[in-house]
Amino acid sequence: MAEIGRRQFLRGGALATAGAAAVAVSGPEARAAVAPARVAYPANRLANIADLTVNEPLDVAYPDDDAPGVLLKLGHPVEGGVGPEGDVVGFSTICPHKGYPLFYNAEDRTLNCPGHFSRFDPEAGGQQVWGQATQNLPQYVLRVDDDGEIHAEGVDELLYGRLSNVL
Ligand code: FES
């Protein structure tokens, strides 16, 4: 367990659950049983690679305008990173504890909460490194196309205050 991340473990669990459902019921019934767990995210263009500077946050919003977030180019490959160097990541900037807006500290490269001082590591998939929250920071699933356009196509955790990430 120590060798795999929490998210990787949870993904494995989700796949195992989906697989078990598919084995228990076959055919159209199986598809119907698994389908409700899937969420269709919008594929939104957030920025272009050329818009980013190493260690300078770029404000964005995803999956809608009421969900503030940030793109970060970290200068070296990181978990979930995209682009030529695998160093571009995106996160919600709403604290998963009680919804305060997070700010980026470029000195120690963390996203920080002024509410109760939780800190999240964008170089480690948004892992909480200190504080009150009970989940890590939601990270965007990103894709970069041939023109350098950065598209968000999903979020790996539930955004604060929502019953679903897609309305
Ligand atoms: S709202 Fe961020 S730590 Fe409480």
Automatic annotation (TrEMBL):
Annotated InterPro entries: AioB/IdrB_ssu, Rieske_2Fe-2S, Rieske_2Fe-2S_sf, TAT_signal
UniProt keyword list: 2Fe-2S, Iron, Iron-sulfur, Metal-binding
Highest taxon, organism lineage: Bacteria
Domain Rieske, residue spans: 58-151
Listed PROSITE patterns: RIESKE, TAT
Pfam families xref list: Rieske (PF00355)
Name of the protein in its database record: Rieske domain-containing protein
